[in-house]
Amino acid sequence: MKQIGKKLGGLVSLGILTLSMTGCMGSQEEINETVMNNLYSTTTSTMETLVAYDNATMEQAIEENPNMDDFTKSAFQAWMDSSEELGAYIGFEDVDPQEAVKKDGSNYVVDLEAEFENGMADVEMVYDSKLNADSIGFSPQYTMGEKMQSAVMNTIVGLGTVFIILFFLCYVIDALKFVPGWVDAVGKKFKKQQPGETQEAVETVQPVQTPAAAPEVSEEEETDDLELVAVIAAAIAASENTSPDSFVVRSIRKSKKNNWR
User: Fold this and answer.
1) Which domain holds residue 114?
2) Where would you find the membrane-spanning parts of this chain (predicted)?
């Protein structure tokens, strides 16, 4: 697996070395023809080497080579992300390097049109100002029908999401009319529970109170008065030699002084 990364890296390094030697021959404003040819051939060779690997092989190569260079790792990742959608590689359209190689600021960009099992794709490889390979990417080409289908699906999904949200909001707003009734019901239920709680509290406290001492005191006073009357009657009867049965006991009421003149 280490040879896979080395093979792709060596291929790119060889192209970079060739480009570096020929790059000095061109001016900064125009791309030298030799540089364009080398960029084009390096890009096509790199692409065809890359698309020959399957995902499992590339994943294993990345795991077993922690020191793999950034370009090779990013190239593997780019092809793994696109291989399932594009399918197997068939070939590319060979064009004039002048049409494929462009300069974007200080970078060089090579565009290729490749054919895959599931359709065409644009392959773009970017080189920095020192002609070092920087990145490679795969962009599937979609027909007008596929674009329209994708647009329709996106529209349907968007409208469906909007309608679902609106339906939910309408449901929430409609449910708000039940809130006042619910609040009133809870308030009435709370008010009904309060008197019951008060009555229970009173009933709980009442057994503690024992106001039953007063009647006992009055009964004791009446008993003492009767005994006193009996003793007095017996004493009077003994002194007069008469029977105490003929005595009549009357209660004495105290009159107010204001009634006397």
Assistant:
1) 2-141
2) 151-173
> Is there a single domain that holds both residue 57 and residue 137?
yes
| CA–CA dist 50, 62 (Å, integer) | 14
CB 106 within 8 A of CB 128: yes
38 lies in a domain?
A: yes
CA separation for the pair 97, 17 (Å, rounded) = 19
Q: Count of alpha carbons within 13 Å of 166, Cβ hemisphere only?
A: 6
Q: Cα-flanking dihedrals φ and ψ of residue 260, to 5°?
A: -90, 140
Nearest to 108 by CA among 50, 23, 10, 39: 39
Q: Do 40 and 159 sit in the same domain of this protein?
A: no
CA atoms within 13 A on the CB side of 107: 11
What the block records as the tokens of 81 is 């992300």
Q: What tens digit of pLDDT does each residue of 128-152 get?
A: 989 999 999 999 998 888 778 888 8
Encode 212-230 in three state secondary structure: CHHHHHHHHHHHHHHHHHH
